[in-house]
Amino acid sequence: MKRALLTLAIAACAPPALAVSRYDASAYTCQAVQAIVQQEGQAVFRYPSLRTGFGLYELLVPPNTACGNYQTLKTMTIPTKDTRRCRVTVCQWGNDRRP
Q1: Where is the signal peptide (predicted)?
Q2: What's the DSSP call for residue 88?
Q3: Residues with Cβ within 8 Å of residue 21, at least 6 apart in sequence
Q4: What percent of the chain lies above the pLDDT cut of 90?
């Protein structure tokens, strides 16, 4: 009984999970995409591949972000409402190796 009450008390005090916002890049201008990422710290953007047209997803981060272990900050481009090549930054696994 004490264990159940303790578990409930801990669960009630736990902070809410931090959710990452998701957006469709084709609905925003390049400047708006960059502003969203800067304001929120990170955001997932969906966009079509320029080669195949298939939907892709990327977790974008601000240019001054410190990436995690084994990750590096890389610049890439995604298509947006106003341009086919909007420059954004992502944290990618170094040498395509995941721990």
Answers
A1: 1-19
A2: E
A3: 36, 40, 43, 44
A4: 65
On whether the CB atoms of residues 56 and 44 are closer than 8 A, the answer is no
Res. 62: pLDDT tops 90: yes
Three-state SS at 31: helix
Report the relative pairing of strands 22-24 and 86-93 from DSSP bridges: unpaired
Q: How many whole angstroms from its chain centre is CA 19?
A: 10
Q: Long-range pairs for 33-42 at CB < 8 Å and ≥24 separation?
A: 33/60, 33/78, 33/80, 33/86, 33/88, 34/86, 34/88, 37/61, 37/62, 37/88, 38/62
pTM more than 0.70? yes
Alpha-carbon dihedral sign for residues 65, 67, 71, 77: negative
In the chain, domain spans: 19-96
Instruction: Tell me how far apart the alpha carbons of residues 71 and 97 are, in angstroms, rounded to a whole number.
Output: 9
Task: Write down the pLDDT at residue 5.
Answer: 44
